Amino acid sequence: MTKIVVDDLDSDEVSSLVEYMTAMSSGQMVQHKKVIEVNGLTNKKIKFLLHKFLYTRHLAGYGVLDTAGNFEIVHLKPEEKHTEQHETLSPTMDVRLPVVIPHWVQPSDMIEWEGEPPPKKMRYKKE
User: Fold this and answer.
1) How would you list the strands of the sheet with 35-39, edge to edge?
2) For the chain, which terminus, N or C, has the lower number of CB atoms within 10 Å?
3) In this predicted model, what pLDDT tens digit does every residue of 67-97 receive, in sequence order?
């Protein structure tokens, strides 16, 4: 015998879950308020049916918790994002001046051509 605890669901959803489980499987279901007792099904099949029920009912905020053969449908709470307060910094430079980021000059940039550019390399085709 396996127990399914559904404290986080409404009573309408619990009765819908019992109907869904009996329609989709051949096991015996007994409901006691928000606890469902299941006989005749493997734990793998029960977990599959619970996930399928949550998916078909568009209950994406819920998940299945498996603890030692007992299942629980829990409401998943997203982690709260903590925003850190940074100290406000005042600009020390004049904002109107453009910021120039220095870059290193490559030696090839320094070469000035006298007259013609360097000859292009010839590619030979295999014959």
Assistant:
1) 28-32, 35-39, 2-5, 70-75, 62-67
2) C
3) 887 888 888 876 666 666 666 656 565 556 5
> What is the rounded distance in angstroms from the CA atom of residue 75 to the CA atom of residue 8?
6
Distance CA(23)–CA(26), nearest Å, equals: 8
Helix (H) or strand (E) holding 28: strand 28-32
Beta bridge partners of 42: none
Cα separation, 65 vs 53, in Å, equals 14
CA distances from 123 to 118, 120, 126 (A): 16, 9, 10
Tell me the whole-structure pTM to 2 decimals: 0.57
pLDDT surpasses 80 at 111 = no
